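Input/output pair, single chain:
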Amino acid sequence: MEPTPEQSPHHAYPDHWEADVVLRDGGTARIRPITTDDAERLVSFYEQVSDESKYYRFFAPYPRLSARDVHRFTHHDYVDRVGLAVTIGGEFIATVRYDRIDGQGRPASAPADEAEVAFLVQDAHQGRGVASALLEHIAAVARERGIRRFAAEVLPANNKMIKVFRDAGFTQQRSFEDGSVHLTLDLEPTAESLAVQRAREQRAEARSVQRLLAPGSVAVIGVGRAPGGVGRSVLRNLLGSGFTGRAYAVNTSFDAGTGTVEGVPAHRSVSEIGEQVDLAVVAVPADRVPAVVADCGESGVQGLVVLSAGYAERGAEGRERQRELVRQARSYGMRIIGPNAFGIINTAPEVRLNASLAPESPKAGRIGLFTQSGAIGIAVLAGLHRRSAGLSAFISAGNRADVSGNDFLQYWYEDPGTDVALLYLESLGNPRKFTRLARRTAAVKPVVVVKGARHSGTNPPGHAVPVSRIPDATVSALMRQAGVIRVDTVTEMVDVGVLLAGQPLPDGPRVAILGNSESLGLLTYDACLAEGLRPRPPRDLTTVASPQDFRNALAEALADRTCDAVIVTAIPWVGEDGEAETGDGEVLAAALREAAVTGPAKPVAVVHVEMGGLAQALAAATSTAAPPAHRPSGPGPQAPSAAPGAPGGSAAGTPAPAASDGPAGAPGAPAPSTTRAPGHPAASPGRAPAAEGAPSPGRAPVSEAAPSTGRPAPDAGRIPAYPAAERAVRALAEAVKYAQWRRQAATPGKVPEFLDDTIDEHGTAALIGRLLGPDPDPRGRPLTHDEACELLAGYGIAVRPALPAPDPEAAVAAAGQLGYPVALKTTAPHLRHRADLGGVRLDLAGENALRRAYDELTDLLGTPAELRPVVQAMAPRGVDTVVRASIDAAAGAVLSFGLAGAPSELLGDTAHRLVPATDRDAAELIRSIKAAPVLFGWRGSAPADTAALEELLLRVSRLVDDHPEVVSAALEPVVVATHGLTVLGASVRLAPPPARSDLGPRRLPSY
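Output:
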């Protein structure tokens, strides 16, 4: 909205305060500043507020607003007087206003830093979290305008408003004065206020997804009058899935007398239906979608699945059409999957929703699948179907202009029906938020990601999101830091997913290999070594081994305390007539399942070659063995109270269920699960989880059972089968690394307190302010050598002095000042750190050697003016390393480490972690590069002082975390000796800090 002439030209309408938010019940609303054009909206809004709410707002009966009131509440200067409104469908549902006051409570201007705040929420929308969202936004506005405290007067009976203030997490004071509660809130964000904000965000976004996946009624818009077409196909798929709710067919071209289509009521618009419609599937041409959205919005539809194409994938015009689609839908409180979507599926028996173009719903299972590509979604569905693996939900979001993978991570985090989350992503709209949500979700269940468009440097057509310039290798490292299992192909994603969905997590990398083929066993052994596992020598059961021999060998391997996982290899038996017998797969599967279900809980995978029926029989997980009275987790005295922290693992003492794909209660179907994955919040969508702490994997006991969800656990206990050893081993290796991350995440690292004593945060901030100046260049500026050294010194990072040597005499004088031996090096950009080009001369013990080196350098490489030589005192011998930190506007600050020279520059052997880094991150950063043995005494050399290196990494991390104006810093080389280290070179660049998308009040992204 544009400001009117009545408003101050010095404070134009602040459109950056506009935001779309998700409310507690999953609906959306828009928050924006109030303008002078809102007088009629304000009056209409006030007329719909109850007398009681008006009394709570004004402390007296106040039936209507006077003209003076309306003028006061709609005219703001956006500095000392600010009003925000929450709108749905363009109409106000809530307002908030602050007025700056002085110490005596009188109207004031800056530098007064306190304001009086008051809220009013329409009664019909109370309880939706509207006031909480408004408080977040008005507090952010106030901080921007230099206000540090809010004062509020609340009647004691107004418990809802008191609770809004109390639960916000801000530091506050309360007192009772003159019959009202006086509240003072310190607006500086706290750890508690941030935790409250993120918990509310999680509940709201999870609830918005739950409304899409579990509708009570669905209207398919665009159903053709004749068979065929997208709309008709979706309707048939919806009905074919056994959808438990009401379904409607909608098409403006239906004749007035059209009663039903495909057996469901037919209507010409949603408004004609006359009943609540929760979800609308839109399958009409793009130019007709706005009218459909308006019809749905006016009829109270909660969410849309837009299959229609013709949006951002078609260029600039389509991108603007997509933005308008999102704006229109959100204005009515609706969320969108799509456009250009393939659809959504929910296999929960109480829903059975297939609102997609997939002709058949997948089997019910424990895997959640999100894709940004319909074609990839089809491929993954087919792959899971071939493996007899089931899904809890499937979402193909197309251009994902609104609902994204982040929303589904919020939902799956607490969904008791999903144990493994699979995501195919082609772009990350909010990488900071993704890593935060992925880390939290991965602490309770695996998150497996395939990232498409890794090397293109651009987003795929239709994905109107910011482009991150971070290399793919860095993205992969940051995902793994967050606990995400990053794989390269959708085949690997399926391989890993089926293993994690049906098997417990391994306690370590030790693998037993057994089977009836020596060659296949050796291939498996080699694959284990290549993936960093620790395989035992393969056990050859010979080709005459019977299913009973397999059973006994597997039971023995599972009982072995030196084994963490088992891979079984199998080839067809050769009969007496020399022909391969491939029909005994079912018998072998039964034998393997019997051993697995009765033995200690360890992951088992099968590699088979042309074994008829084996893979299908293993996936069926229908045991013919009598369930044991107790399934121990391993020999020895420490018998935990639960199975390992595998998705879907059952509590100790409870046999693994025999899974079937029939409805609960059907013959052969398992009883509803009464256990949960370790640490997994037992909550229905929309309810806050008990805690965000990271539970330990593997043997972590389950202290309490979750209530039954009514959904069977059809994947639990299934043994995954693979047609190649490499695929099975790679999946197992990912499970091993994930389990190790879970164990470490249970006790997160810390930032050592000793850093505080040697860091001058305020002094460094003042220095940065002086270096940037009052009007900094948005592009920033590199610091000189002396400026960089001064800035780094504020964080306890000493750079060895380097004195300029524009001529031989200056070089000799510098050496005399520093003391021999010295190094002579060039600082020209094309020669910096290039010892291989002769630009560095070391161990110059005296004046003659220095003069000779100076002459050689200038004769070989150029004039002193070109080379910019410097003299530096020699550092103790050690390992040359490089430490860097940089800020990506989308992903955030990244800390990087590698060995200097060829290892990092040529081979890309560099490790990365997100800032702020903990002591554990620093230790892992050093050890995760391939050349790490060089630092730890490789080939008999003296180990480097890695403790000093870890401290340096923490100091650099702290610097860029405390001061986002430090957009890049590079320490190169850092020579790490046996005792201590020396920073020989440093470069720093300052710039105004980039805007962060993960801070501030909750808001939906707008691209």
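The CA atoms of residues 803 and 817 lie 9 Å apart. The chain has 27 helices and 41 strands.
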